[in-house]
């Protein structure tokens, strides 16, 4: 069974030694994705904009891997403030409202102060 690595070209991938996504058989594991715009390496100021960037990057990685957002079965959301939940839930509902993957939100610190949210997903197409 082959293992396929997906990259977004983020400098963090090479430095930290990880892939944006790993495909193994009918599974796609997407790494924790923050709100950077990887084309410009800029980070929006609001959690809403960061969440949208996360989802855009995740969607692109899934597509490159041959998956769709509708294949997502598990989400982990990491936010730096519990009050962000009510601000990002509607965004998640727009994307995952009909898909309804299993999901968890955790309040924690992230590795850079400008990072307000990180999202990781697992997809299955079987």
From TrEMBL:
Pfam families: Ribonuc_L-PSP (PF01042). SUPFAM superfamilies: YjgF-like. Transmembrane segments: none annotated. This is Translation initiation inhibitor, yjgF family. It comes from Sinorhizobium americanum. The lineage of its organism: Bacteria, Pseudomonadati, Pseudomonadota, Alphaproteobacteria, Hyphomicrobiales.
